[in-house]
UniProtKB/TrEMBL annotation:
Record-level Gene Ontology MF annotations: adenylylsulfatase activity; nucleotide binding
Pfam families reported in the protein's UniProt record: DcpS_C (PF11969)
Name of protein: HIT domain-containing protein
Domain HIT: 30-140
UniProt keyword terms in alphabetical order: Hydrolase, Nucleotide-binding
SUPFAM superfamilies: HIT-like
InterPro entries tied to this protein: Histidine_triad_HIT, HIT-like, HIT-like_sf
Residue span of motif Histidine triad motif: 124-128
C-alpha cells in the first residue's frame, strides 16, 4: 500500500517507509528500472544525466507528452519538502522538460505538472511535460490544474510550495529563470555536484 489517506503520513514518512520497505519498493518500481537500465524496459531515453532521465509517456495524451523523473526513487509530491535539494531537483526536472519541448514542439502551448496522490499512476515522482493540443481533446481533464480536487499541480506552483527561505532571499531566483524558455546549454551547465546527496542518510 503506497497511499495512506491519513494526513499525518507526510510527517512520518521515515517510520512508514523503513529503509527495507523503500528498497523493496525500488526493486519493483518500473521507473527505477527505466532510469537505471532503460534497455531492459525497451525505453528510449530522450535525455539523461546523473539526477534525472526523460522519456515519452507510454500513453501520450498530447501532441508531445514526455515524462521527466528523478533517478532516485522518490514516491510522490508528498515526499518533497521545503528544502534546497528538493527545490533544485524539481527545478532541474522542469528545466529539462522545457528544453525538450522547446526543441521538439517550439510553437506549441505547453504544460508541466504532477499528479498528486491518489491520482498518480506510478509511485515514482514524474513530471508530465505536455505540448498541446491534447489528443484526444477530452484528455485535458486528466491534466486540468484548475479542478478543485487538486489532482494535478502545475510545476511552478509546486516549486513555490517547496521553495526554501534561503532561495527566496536570493536575487534573480531560479523560478524567474524558468519562466522564459531556457536554452539547451542550461542542461549542460547544471552543476552536477548538487545531486551528490543521499536522501536516506540525510537527517
Ligand atoms: Zn522508483
Ligand atoms: Zn502521472
Amino acid at each position: 500500500m503506497h497511499y495512506c489517506p491519513n494526513s499525518s503520513y507526510r510527517w512520518h514518512r521515515k517510520e512508514v517507509h523503513s529503509a527495507r520497505a523503500m528498497a523493496e519498493e525500488e526493486t519493483s518500481c518500473l521507473f527505477c528500472q527505466i532510469s537505471k537500465d532503460p534497455a531492459s524496459t525497451h525505453t528510449d531515453l530522450l535525455y539523461s544525466d546523473e539526477s534525472v532521465v526523460a522519456f515519452q509517456d507510454i500513453k501520450p495524451a498530447a501532441f508531445r507528452h514526455y515524462l521527466v523523473i528523478p533517478v532516485q526513487h522518490i514516491p510522490t509530491t508528498r515526499d518533497l519538502r521545503r528544502r534546497s535539494e528538493d527545490y533544485q531537483l524539481v527545478s532541474h526536472m522542469l528545466s529539462v522538460g522545457q528544453n525538450l519541448l522547446f526543441k521538439d514542439a517550439p510553437s506549441s502551448k505547453t504544460e508541466f505538472g504532477f499528479h498528486q496522490p491518489p491520482f498518480n499512476s506510478v509511485n515514482h515522482l514524474h513530471l508530465h511535460c505536455l505540448a498541446l493540443p491534447f489528443i484526444p481533446r477530452w484528455k485535458f481533464t486528466k491534466y486540468w490544474a484548475s479542478g478543485s480536487d487538486g489532482r494535478f499541480v502545475v510545476a511552478n506552483k509546486l516549486l513555490k510550495r517547496i521553495k526554501p527561505d534561503e532561495i527566496q532571499a536570493e536575487t534573480g531566483s531560479v523560478s524567474q529563470d524558468l519562466s522564459e524558455p531556457s536554452n539547451l546549454k542550461r542542461i549542460k551547465k547544471f552543476p552536477a555536484r548538487l545531486f551528490h546527496w543521499n536522501r536516506r542518510s540525510a537527517a
